[in-house]
Amino acid sequence: MNINKFIAILLIGTVAWSCGTQKKVDNMDSKKKIIEVDYSVGPTTYIYKTKMDYSKLVPVTLSNDKTKISSFPHPKDVYYNGELAYPTQLEEGYLLDNRGISSNVAFLNITYVEYSKLEKAPSADSLYFMIIDNDPLVELYNCGNRYQYKDEINELNNMIIKKQLSKCKKVVID
After folding, report:
1. Same domain assignment for residues 74 and 144
2. Distances (CA, A) of 103 to 77, 135, 156
């Protein structure tokens, strides 16, 4: 066998071996991702508990000093996947946010149904006087990118039942 053929066979073997090794590494990485929470860019998965049941009431976002409303929905924006954006009930009293809450959430004294029927969005000042609780959260967890879950409700419920919310980032703990 001449030296050129030997080098060619050696190079082909090396390339084939390294491609096979890369696949094994990729498979190990993908298994690791299933175990860890994915915080890549995308819609955030928030799980929370409140002091009282506000699940039918419209949430707004307050400024850090809680003296004004910094964000609120238009009446046409209180929907998620074509349905009113009520939070999804999870195990042990947790709720899955479908509206876009944050640690500065406050709840208004108006239901999603009532709010969705308004012709136009009220002013932030008028909504501020409708707040019934400006500090409603007991717990709030950021559980990563919402698109990482194949069966979101079951996977989140399993994390709750198995006491694995420590995989998520604590945002608020009362």
Report:
1. yes
2. 20, 9, 20
